[in-house]
Protein: Transcriptional regulator, AraC family
Organism: Propionispora hippei DSM 15287
Amino acid sequence: MKEYGALLPEEKWQAVIQCDSRYDGVFFYGVRTTGIFCRPSCKSKAPVPGNIIFFEHPAEARQLGFRPCKRCCPERTVFQPELELVKKVQEIIGDGYQNRVDVQHISRQLGVSKNHLIKLFKRYYGVTPAQYITSRRVAKAVELLRQGEAGILEVAYAAGFGSLSTFYKCFKERTGYAPGEVRENTDLLATCVTADSCQTVLETS
Ligand SMILES: [Zn+2]
């Protein structure tokens, strides 16, 4: 979920004209000419940029005399089954990436089609579930290598990789180093965080 403070006006404006439901609950917008305020996904006619004002909370809109739109009901608690689903996926990956968790398994577990799940996940997180699983595994491997306790093979399996060749390939792709290099020089990926906080360079692929 986006943080309100991190949004640029341009991003908010784009969300409004694209009726982007990912921003529902993150901000609201009022139209000065009508005195109505909406959630970003509202399908009402696109407003003129100069007439629009953004709010973080419905209460701010109310204070300025705006009334809630009858069409999108901006004050109703935001119901986002999609977001719940992708959060569930992330949770399952977090619990299972060190084992044999894969997208097929997750889609069966949640009773949704694999393609739908991949599409949704990518829309919210910008990467596919498979890429996310790899990121978690690489981050875990970095953590284990830096602790210097296990051998490369043990690290590969403990991080959830099914084979050494996959491990070497993914590790090099994401970090730019071979696992052995990181093991020899633990300062090499000093900026990498642990597997549990995954908003790292490892995410981008
Ligand atoms: Zn509306």
